[in-house]
Amino acid sequence: MSGKGKGKGHLIHHKNRRTRSQMAGVQFPVGRLHRMLKKGHYADRIGSGAPVYLAAVLEYLTAEILELAGNAARDNKRIRIVPRHLSLAIRNDEELNDLLKGVTIAEGGVLPNIQSALLPKKSMKSSSKDGVQSQAY
Q: For the domain 21-112, what is the CATH code?
């Protein structure tokens, strides 16, 4: 035999296999992030805790943005989060806006902003009672 094919290795069951994401208690893929850190050549060596920390940070930021976007969707009486809600959530939060100030979100639009000089003037109805009446022809 050439050594290929099914030997005794196929009898091993992996019931006790736990991913690093499960051990760390995060949803983001720790193994994939580790691989990306290595392939990116950000440093010569990558510690075992670096991808776990990165996964936790990414998960926190994602949860924060999605929570604010969900609130924006609910404010607009919608049940689906669209890019507009993400953009509103990020731009209305001071810290997230500072973090993502150079980011353009496709289909996100801009914040509604009308300068006060462009708004119509408020009429003074309370002062018109003192004797000045409208002109009648």
A: 1.10.20.10
